[in-house]
Amino acid sequence: MESAPFPNSKINLTQDAFDLLLAQLDTDREQAGTKYEVLRRKLVKFFEWRRSAFTEELADDTINRIARNLEAGEQIRNFTAYCLGIARNVFLESLRTRKREEALQSLPHASAAPPDEMDRRRECLQRCMRELSPENFHLIVQYYREDKQARIELRRDLAVRLGIPLNALRIRTHRIRTQLEHCVENCMQRLATE
After folding, report:
1. Class for domain 15-106, per CATH?
2. Which of 5, 38, 55, 84 could pair with 94 as two cysteines, CB 3.0-4.6 Å apart?
3. Which CATH architecture has domain 113-193?
């Protein structure tokens, strides 16, 4: 059984983002709703033609990304071409995800870390996360919360909320991550000697 193409890609749209999408489609709200349905059907067909197993989900993901980009201030000149470009990127991401999952499934299970070691590592990570300051804990959780395009947008928003450049955000989270990695390794060494 094939898993979903983007397990973490559910982008929660705001009402403003959805309204901007409808406004892009037509100034008349009723006509915009009709055009929205036509756009969605075309996107579903786009993914069907490419033999995707998740046509509905990929179409919704594409529409959500378009709406979020509009909300972020993206100026779109050729809406149809833009939508197809986003759809193509979503499709390519789904292929990469599927190939990655197939590769992981084909690996022999013996090469994976023993379950007890995974459990110890998870326990150590939880301990180390609890040792972080509340600000650093919140920041690192937010920074790694989403996947793919949603992660990029989330990080941009996070930098804006903190009032720092994106590079400063990357440096700050890299330092926290390095601190966590050292903490987890030290914890694993302590557990191994017990």
Report:
1. mainly alpha
2. 5
3. Orthogonal Bundle (1.10)
Asked if residues 140 and 176 have their Cβ atoms less than 8 Å apart, the reply is yes
Query: Do the Cβ atoms of 43 and 63 come closer than 8 Å?
Result: yes
Q: Which sequence spans correspond to the domains of the chain?
A: 15-106, 113-193
Whole-angstrom Cα distance, residue 27 to residue 17?
A: 15
- Residues 97-106 as b/e (b if ≥16 CB within 10 A, e otherwise) read bbeeeeeeee
Residues 1-55: pLDDT tens digits?
A: 344 444 434 556 788 888 999 999 999 999 999 999 999 999 999 999 988 888 8
pLDDT value at position 104?
A: 62
Judge if pTM exceeds 0.85: no
How many whole angstroms separate alpha carbon 171 and alpha carbon 173?
A: 6
- Asked if residue 127 lies in contact with residue 180, where contact means CB atoms within 8 angstroms, the answer is no
Buried b (16+ CB within 10 A) or exposed e, 108-130: eeeeeeeeeeeebbeebbeebee
